[in-house]
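User: Fold this, then the next.

Assistant: Folding the first:
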Amino acid sequence: MTQYLLTSTIVATILLVVYQLFLEKEKMHLFNRFYLLISLLFSLLIPFISIEIIKEITTPATAPIAMNFSRGTMVIAEETNYLEQTLWGIYVLVTAILSVRFIRNIATFYQLKKNNATLSFQNATLVLLHEPVLPHTFMNTIFINEAEYQERKIEKELFAHEMTHVNQKHTLDVLFVELIKTVFWFNPLFLLYKKAIQLNHEFLADEKVVQSYKNIPFYQSLLLSKASCNPPLYLASNLNFQVTKKRFLMMSRNSSKKIILGKQLALLPIFTALFCYFCIDSVAQVQTKPTINTKFTTASVTDRDAYYASVTVNVTDEKRNLIFSKKYEDLTLEEKNRYLSYTPKKYSKKSPTKAEFEDFKNSKKYAIWIDDIPANNSHLAVYSPDKIVYFTGSFVHKNARSKKFPQPFQYNFYTEAYYEKNLKNAHKKFSGKSIDIVLSDSKKSPKNLKPNTEEESLVSPNKNLANLNPVPKTETLVNLLQETTKESNPPLSNDVVFNVAGITEKPEFPGGMEKFYKFVGNNFQAPTEPNLKGKVYVMFIIEKDGSITNVSVLRDIGHGTGEEAMRVIKLSPKWIPAQKDGVPVRVQYSLPITIMSSNL
């Protein structure tokens, strides 16, 4: 909600400033009317619009990757926020009061119309009131004093003024902005919009009177004589709204058509710039370089055997049906290569520079952990750069940020003592007693599990596997892919997997990507958890016949979103396969799926 209000307010402010500086003084009142209304709608809707542009980034093709989170990544129990509840209570109470006021004011007009004499006048209705009031308009009804009407003391210019409000339906504009004010009563910006809209209505009505009667001095003196009268209800269009020098000057102003056209055209790049800045988001589309089969070296196999020694390996399908449970030493070589190709790299000490260290103290930019414990940025003051012997961090996409950690970057800092105890030898021995591996393809069972068949993807390790390699939870997609190299991971199969850059014809979903995303949206069953927002990154191979295989999750946001994304991708109809020099080839593909719960 905070992000929505901030974005909406910034856009609305920019557009209102543009209006007041460049448009309000020009005699193009009808254009300005719709500019103000469109500006309001644009500012309210733009936070909901998100367009992703996929940028292709080349990385080596690797085996599917286990998501390895830092041991410092913990779930913090949410405490009851009484301040937030109190503020929401105040908001609901004030909004309810203003809503009642809004409805009562509308009802008042209809009550006055019902309880007083009425007359037809052109395409409007005159309501004759006993009270001394100025002529004012609501919808197609003009309210006037009965005695003044009977004695013909209401000037024809005033009738022309009010009829302009009726014919151009100015009341709809007022009701629209008043409704917005009722919901966003805490934002004074919408009060400024209402004043600008109502003043523009008066410009339109004044212009019509001047064009009809061509007696500007008389009309101005008439307005001045009515300026001190009490205004009617705030929802009405009334004659004496801001009888100021600004209205008088506008009556005699002449605007150049070229200047008006130039200013109108200049609005296009302004709206375009705002749309691009707030709505377009770049997402990495990973290009995977084709690799050929290589064998594990004696050293890598030895390291792996030492790392997983005595660890129990549990392999299950997506429904958690156990396929087998074995000690590492009892696995065949094919099973080891298939399920446990990953071993962590040795950590090399690195300390931040003085400039980097000072920058990390910026609490608006960085969320930090010291020795895997969340810390305030000010805590860095008790350290010097050389006391931090290892650090790692990453950028956090705006849709993945949380209330507790809204910063765009997250960094882990490790001291000498913690590094020596927890990281220095972390690459030598797996710290847990067992590993749970979930396969993305449940067709195999223990009895028909064979080597050299289609590879399954490791997508959901249990918490023990998280100790393999402590990297931040928010490591970028590209960095995650680069963490694993072909020396530490076997290729997916004996058949070469190409990237989209190395082929002559890219794979295509029947009907295009828009149809594919529509297919995903129609089949994806979103979690019921409130305030859930983020992206699930999936990777899969498009085979030579267009079928989807090797579906894996590179990142999810929990609550079963990863498993659901895999399920939906597997339901996909066949694609039009990629081709290289006219021959169908296998291509590895990745894409993001945006998740947003309905109550956001």
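Now the next one, as you asked:
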Amino acid sequence: MGSRTLSLAVEEQLRSLCLKDFPCGHGCWSKSRGSIFEEQSWGYSEQDEGREGAAKEEEEALMEHLTSPLSPWRHEGSWSPQAPTLRELSVRKPELLHGNFIFSHFNTLRIVDKGVSIVDDGLLRFSNLRELVLSANKISELQAEYLPCTLQVLELYANQVSSLKGLSSQPLPCLQHLGLGCNRLGSPADIQYLTGTLWPRLVSLDLSWSGFQGQRALVDALATLPSLRTLVLEGNPLTLTPSYPGFILDSLPRLLYLDATRVTPDDHHRFEGLAKMRDQIVDQAMATVTVRRIRGVPDPLLTVDESVPEFPVVSYSYFVNYEFLSQSPPGNKQAGSDTASTSDPMAPIAEKMDGGIVGIYQTPKENCEEETTNTPKPDTTARTMESLETNHCSIDVIMNSTHKLAWAESMDYDHTSVHSVGDLGSFKSFVLRGLWLTVEEEKVLSWPAPSGEQPITKSTTEKKGGKEVD
């Protein structure tokens, strides 16, 4: 599909106003146009008949066609609040409808989901433009010289912008809101363009659902924005760290809103001092996986045929497998044996963030426990999955398991493991994909051993799906 310019999309919206068609513009349907549009072809004057003629209407009647909720000529004009007023002007003062006036009439343009991929210089014709919303388009690059210097609001949510270099080449002096959420931003090069030198009047900044990972570098840049009061960072990998949002709030004390939530004095007091601990801020996430109990597994003895031989004796046990990222640090311990090591660099931050981290790290295990089995167990080597992020081609995951329990109506595992993740981008993709769990059944067959020999056992494992896991 070819490129589509913003000028083309705006022209289509302007044509939809039908400014030259009934009941707008110059036309014989308007009585106020005078004798210029009088119909001469009928051979008589309307005044001689004592009536106005069905083809002409008063100005107020034409206005009612534009504003009545039941009128087929009513135009909502959701793409600009000035669109309905321009149509009204086309009835009251149609002589004003020339190109320069039309373009200067608009203060707001909302061109949403129109397939726009190029912002061209045609936008400069809108000399009084204050608000430009280009959400849900296909814009990958934006040149500041094609934007009117009068802009106060620029919204580019859900596009394909991968660099801020073009937007910062000629800063907009009046810009108060910049919406860059859900784009392909997040590199260190992007951070250097988020400074007060370029955006001295910026009050609101939306960077949500992007790829920013480094809190300290981002905070250093945002702290130079003297007017910043509203910041949106949700959906970024850095929000997965224990130090978020405390470090951001303490480092940017002038913020009034963070992630659409009002920042209260209690919030500032709660996180006071985190900015001074910046050397201990680590771009690392902690995730706790807990499997409390399982219900709903059918009783395996209900399906046993009473006519089968006495041997082999069959015993059943169940355990839960789940995949997690393989970036866990070496030397982790089994969950339930200790608490997190106090030498962990994240420990002081976690303690500041209300209660610290409960639990310990866990080393991915190749089996739930030692077994004698001839049936292959689930793949316990690290493997890859498709990533949801464009900058991560694949993510390494490894299988983790709970201990095994004999069947019961409610099997209480009380399994807890804490995973440390250093690659925040991969962790974000993993979280968006979701945590996959499988409940597996192990069946052990036992025969009595001849005298002087060890008992013989044979185990098999079957996967169970759709079970309730708390």
